[in-house]
Structure prediction request, 224 residues.
Amino acid sequence: MDRDDPAYKGQSGYNRWLLKAYDRLIIGRIGPFVWRCPGPPLLGNYQRNIRDGHLDVGPGTGWFLLRSGLPDGARLTLMDPNTTVLDFVKPKLGRFDLDVVEADVCKPLPMTGPFQSAAINLVIHCLPGPQSRKAGAVANVAAVLAHDGVLFGATVLGEAGPHTWLARRVLHAFNRQGGFDNLDDSEVAIRAMLEASFRQVQLQVVGSVAIFEARDPIRPAASG
Ligand SMILES: C[S@@+](CC[C@H](N)C(=O)[O-])C[C@H]1O[C@@H](n2cnc3c(N)ncnc32)[C@H](O)[C@@H]1O
Prediction:
């Protein structure tokens, strides 16, 4: 990705060092002890919603995919603008019928689907504001979902979230560093992003994290 791209900083930090430490550090420590959101509610979201014909936006290390219950041989598409992420995760997921796409979710997606399910798990807080651009990313995924498909995931809330003192310090540090751009991501804002593209949205807050499922994608009216 071009360094001048607004989405550059949100994906550039995922180098091999961070990816090797990710499961222990982010999923094992920062999730439960900083964001007060342990793995099970996020994993439950995967296990409830993932289907054969799944698109995973920003797969990271694939920790959730590997434990999601997706059967061997199921069709799985991984999409990320960071090729280090894709190269790292691809060998772990060889038991699936895998497709790997280098792309940024903030731009119209280079595939048509239709996918039966899509996840955007712990990605929206990495995407560049304003809210309209994040809503555009959600719309890009909605556009490639089947009419009865589901989008699910989670994201760390911004300043308005119910953070502890420690979580607030980490939130601001990550925003200063550039890996996060989510200070304006309130629960209301995340719901509005999802409701702009889906008729049915369920969202719950666990610690500092909003966990969501969205169904019934809204198709833009055909022009002409
Ligand atoms: C915090 S990790 C989450 C990884 C995984 N989904 C999980 O829940 O463990 C963020 C992931 O989103 C990807 N990402 C960041 N910006 C992106 C963008 N603009 N489009 C698609 N993926 C992006 C990163 O490269 C990374 O793989």
Q: What stands out?
A: Residues 7, 10-11, 14, 57-60, 63-64, 80-82, 85, 104-106, 121-123, 126-127 surround S-adenosylmethionine (CB under 6 Å).
